[in-house]
Amino acid sequence: MLGTILAGKQYSRILVPGLAIFAIPHIPENWMSKSTNPAVQEAITAIGHLRDKQAKVFEAGVPTARVISLRGTHYIFLSDEAAVLRDMRTFLAGLR
Fold this sequence. Notes:
Blueprint: H1 2-6, E1 18-26, H2 30-34, H3 38-61, E2 65-72, H4 76-79, H5 81-93
Parallel strand pairs: 1-2
């Protein structure tokens, strides 16, 4: 499934404006950030690159897309509710 998404095939049929809100970086758990294990640090970096790639594929696959990146956790709609609501309202207002 992820391979299909990163290839852009998942988005090629979306013909309406789309909004994607990505949390950047996916904030790693505290123990991950403090780890001196190179494998853990590489995994954190890989997660960030994957998120960036997903955002770019979505944006390229949906020409009318609006991609927003907010600093926060995976549950960005909880950790930064005000910013998510603001950006959703701005996007929706532009559809009129």
